[in-house]
Amino acid sequence: MIEVKHLYKKFEDKDVLIDINAIFENGKTNLIIGQSGSGKTVLMKNLVGLLEPTSGEVLYDGRNFVAMSKSEKVQLRREMGMIFQSAALFDSLSVLENVMFPLDMFSTMNYRERVKRAQTCLDRVNLIEAQEKYPGELSGGMQKRVAIARAIALNPQYLFCDEPNSGLDPKTSLVIDDLLHSITQEFGITTIINTHDMNSVMGIGENIIFIFEGHKEWQGVSSEIMDTKNKRLSDFIFASDLLKEMRTVVNEQHNMPNNQPTDKP
Fold it and tell me: Which of 153, 164, 200, 239 is exposed most, by the fewest CB atoms within 10 A?
């Protein structure tokens, strides 16, 4: 579990994160959502140590990451996996070599063990047949699956995903969502996904945190989000025409008398 307590982040005179208190739960897909510029990316960077909070605590299973020494932070980062928006694969390395990269850097396995572990991870994302290919030979969705395989190579306790569906078509996005969700459950990982994709929110949002102008406006689950009374969250959710139509349907259903027949048999 990751717990954030009274987190503030300021850049010069601008407050970007203001008194954030949140819990990211083990074995669940935790989503950070919000408009561009809301502070969700800054929040994730504070969680992984790419930025230092102005004040507050980031607790990893009770361990305060902010107060750790440099060597302690390095050790904790070995428990983290990262999936970047662009996949961030090395073009000059094969798929297998990309997945082996963190193993080469941080594990004590011998070469044969590292190859076997990387192949196991590729098999988990259904890409074992592509192990000898290079990133330039893969589709965007396949590259994201390689990035997932690389991120889980070291058996992380915490998995961070920055806009994992960026640039993908809706069908491929669903594949990535399902894969992240199943891996989270299978390994009991604390997964945190930074996204504005409402399909992801509704499909795999087990614990959702909505950030607005640096404040935590709302926290809940996808089954509650359509009925939210928070106007800012509602405006964010129903930004698209399709979701506006969904809101109309939901409102009509809620206003329907209990004894009024529906179209359902």
Answer: 239
